[in-house]
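can u pls check wat happens w/ zinc ion
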Amino acid sequence: MTTVRYRLGDTGPAISEIRTKLTLLGLLDDTAPGPHTFDEDVDRAVRQFQQERGLTVTGVVDATTYRVLDEARWRLGDRLLSYVVANPQTGDDVLALQRRLSELGFDVGQVDGVFGPRTDEAVRELQRNTGLTPDGTCGPSTFKALGRLAPIVTGGRPDTLRASEALRRAGKRLPGKVVVIDPGHGGADRGNTGHGLEEAAIVEDLGARIEGRLTATGVQTYLTRGPGSEVELDEIGRAEFANETGANLMVSLHVDAHPNPSASGVSTYYYGGDRPGTMSAIGEQFAGLIQREIVARTDLLNCHSHAKTWDLLRHTKMATVRVELGYVTNENDAARLADPDFRDVIAEAIVVAVQRVYLPTGEDAPTGVLHLDDLAQV
Ligand SMILES: [Zn+2]
């Protein structure tokens, strides 16, 4: 497998293809077929694209940026859309379809630009409601029906209301809930390193600590990888694994690194981007809870919660949060991360955040005071 990685100074046919895509999106002005070079203008356009799409702003066209750039060319109506189980369709047209269906009151789940089973069900529902054959395939007549209907919801976020309602209905008891723990690195991929520590070893150990605590509260817990894993899955593979478990929540564990040794702190990420409708409300809430609990229980610097469209966040159907637990390249953070007691504190903070997701507002104890013993009684 070749690794897609184009950056400033690169040349070749792939670069002219990238230039064409950026020009079609209005981010670059290639009037005449210019040199096939990844120049300063391309670098700027790629950064702008990454910013707009909630990707990490690097100026480098890696596999994810390349794929999202390719998906961006589709406008609603350009092609037939349907649920292809083996290889779901992705693109801006799927995202537009989901947003439109959601405005019309149909339940598409997360507006993520991935045509999955819930989008399929919503399309069939629309077709039944408008006298069309409910075959789940979006063609000209379905597009026409979509354009004709007036939104029943304006301003509000029906998907958010629906997600909150589902959460309330799930009840506040932990037994029966399903949570996936994703150690972000493992196997040959050791992740970030610094001060004699390896990210993979830290997140594997932490994953086991969280698993033990969640299992003790009756939560069914899955790990996306472990010492016995034979195949290393990429982010989309791990997202699909999580989707198959039918989990309610997912936590992806990481440790950050930076060339500047003074960079430090904890941050959390959830699915969302600049484009309207693309935001996991429960993901945002869960990220905020994890952030708060960790900041309250440790002296890690608060680097806050942020919306991103990274593969794992985007392709998971449940509320997923990625946690970057300090910097392995920072002396203080590394000393904390090396300490087993500190890892226990982090594990406890995450388990308490899981519980808090299900506690109706107003019923939760102040941040940092809820402990595992309390959870058993809830
Ligand atoms: Zn990582």
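Strands lie at 5-6, 61-62, 178-183, 193-194, 197-198, 220-223, 249-256, 266-271, 302-308, 319-327.
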